[in-house]
Specification:
- The protein contains 14 helices and 20 strands.
- Helix 3 packs across helix 10 and helix 12 packs across helix 13 (258-268).
- It is an alpha/beta fold and 460 residues long.
- Helices cover 32% and strands 23% of the residues.
- The strands form 4 sheets. A 12-stranded mixed sheet has the order 4-5-3-6-7-8-9-10-14-13-12-11, sandwiched between helices. The chain has a 4-stranded mixed sheet with strand order 19-18-17-20, covered by helices on one side. A two-stranded antiparallel ribbon has the order 1-2.
Length: 460
């Protein structure tokens, strides 16, 4: 635990609100500067460009990216097979001739991929399979991606300055807190924060009471957490007042399952939408009002590897992305690890936007761990975020009071230190009333469809 985390944990509520707000202002400087404002202005204008304009823009962006990487320590070898003229004439063909970039490549060749950039800094991915990666970014990189997220919200008549509630896996309320408030406030973003660890049957009455005391324009966060709030509230007959109902619920970071969407809608009556984005920044897809994902072509170019033709011209395949807004850490043909279904090129979405459209992001469909306190936990990535020992991990619940971590280790891993760290974090962040077991394997079994399940419940 860092010094700041220690201070935060021991601080009174008003000081924790102050620190949340201070964090918000620091992030504002990274995300919402002049580049953000200029790029958002451009995004608003380009949203309805036709196919020709979009393809021309991507061709130029891809040409500039490939030419700039011919001397890159990692990509330069593969690009050496192509002349600069090849790139200028047909950058899409050159890109298709390059190998996929896998997560293991990013982990192993971080220093070779990274491009020197003034003001750059490291960030870590969430690591849904336990494979947390280091990524190198600049404020400009972050602001371009943030502008796409803001445009997505604007499609639903929501401003990023509107009052909101974020349902998070981060422990913004210390785990030992047993009395309300079970929420904190980031004034810089006009955002209340509710973390999943305190969303239990014992606390739901206080949480709903708080939500009914404010008038947020939107909710955001993991759909599994928001659905848990809705399900517990419906179970106990706790209604959300009309004046407190959000207009929109923005889900992210994981698939929104049908039962989750149903529970959220029953309780809030809000429009439910989501955006597919990665910390890596290589792929960004935003839903429209008609429920389709539109490629954010201004910052990425997407492909489907190992394509499978479906009915009506749709195509399913591994979602691969190349990021244009990654000046400090470029990723070419990055394998996201998710599967997507793309609409045929002849498809015209009712929203009027053209370009590449996806019907769905299948991603990973996981079970959840049920804690003794009644919480349903689907995401555990924050437990592994800064661990370098784990290549992959699967969380298995065999019994009501226990969880097993099935871990594929990297070489020279410090097992004792790793187990101590995960045991401490699990007790503090998820539940202190569950036994934690560790199982080390050569490989983690995939489903019959070849998918990785990060969470498996054996409870019946």
């Amino acid at each position: 635990m860092g010094v700041l985390d220690f201070v935060y944990k021991l601080s009174p509520v008003f000081m924790q609100n102050f620190l949340c707000t201070a964090y918000g202002y620091i992030e504002n400087k990274k995300r919402y500067g002049k580049h953000f404002r200029d790029f958002l202005f451009f995004l608003r204008a380009s949203d309805y460009w036709d196919h020709r304009q979009r393809e021309s823009y991507q061709a130029q962006a891809l040409t500039n990216l490939l030419l700039g990487l011919k001397r890159n320590n990692y990509y330069g070898v593969a690009l050496s097979k192509f002349s600069s003229q090849d790139i200028v004439v047909n950058p899409f063909a050159v890109l298709a001739g390059l190998p996929l970039t896998e997560k293991k490549d990013v982990f192993q060749f971080f220093n070779d991929i990274r491009v020197s950039a003034a003001g750059g800094f490291e960030v870590k991915t969430s690591g849904t399979t336990g494979t947390s990666l280091r990524i190198y970014k600049t404020n400009e990189d972050m602001s371009a991606q943030t502008a796409c997220w803001v445009r997505h919200r604007e499609r639903f008549n929501v401003s990023f300055r509107d009052l909101s509630v974020n349902f998070t896996g981060k422990l913004v309320v210390p785990s030992r807190t047993s009395k309300p408030p079970f929420w904190r406030y980031n004034a810089a973003w006009k955002q209340y924060l509710v973390n999943m660890q305190h969303i239990t049957r014992d606390n739901i009455n206080e949480i709903v009471g708080f939500l009914n005391s404010i008038a947020p324009v939107f909710y955001s966060g993991y759909p599994s957490i928001i659905a848990n709030v809705a399900s517990l509230a419906l179970e106990q007959g706790l209604e959300l007042h009309a004046s407190a109902r959000p207009k929109v619920v923005f889900c992210g970071a994981e698939n929104t399952l049908a039962w989750q969407s149903e529970a959220i809608f029953r309780w809030t009556g809000a429009t439910i939408t989501d955006l597919y984005g990665l910390t890596e920044g290589a792929c960004n897809l935003s839903k429209c009002q008609h429920g389709y994902y539109h490629e954010d072509f201004e910052i990425c170019y997407t492909e489907l590897a190992e394509p499978e033709n479906l009915a009506d011209g749709r195509i399913r395949g591994k979602l691969v992305g190349t990021g244009f807004a990654l000046k400090a850490f470029p990723l070419l043909r990055y394998n996201t690890g998710d599967v997507a279904v793309r609409m045929p090129s002849s498809f015209l979405c009712g929203c009027g936007r053209r370009g590449t459209v996806y019907e769905s992001i299948e991603g990973r469909v996981d079970d959840y761990v049920l804690t003794p306190g009644g919480s349903k936990v689907m995401r555990f990535d924050y437990l592994f975020k800064d661990t370098r020992e784990i290549e992959e991990v699967q969380v298995v619940q065999p019994l009501v009071d226990s969880v097993t971590f099935r871990i594929k280790l990297r070489k020279n891993a410090e097992i004792g230190l790793l187990e101590d760290l995960l045991t401490r974090r699990f007790a503090e962040w998820i539940s202190a009333d569950m036994k934690l077991n560790f199982e080390y394997v050569e490989d983690i079994e995939k489903t019959s469809a070849g998918k990785f399940k990060a969470v498996v419940s054996l409870l019946r």
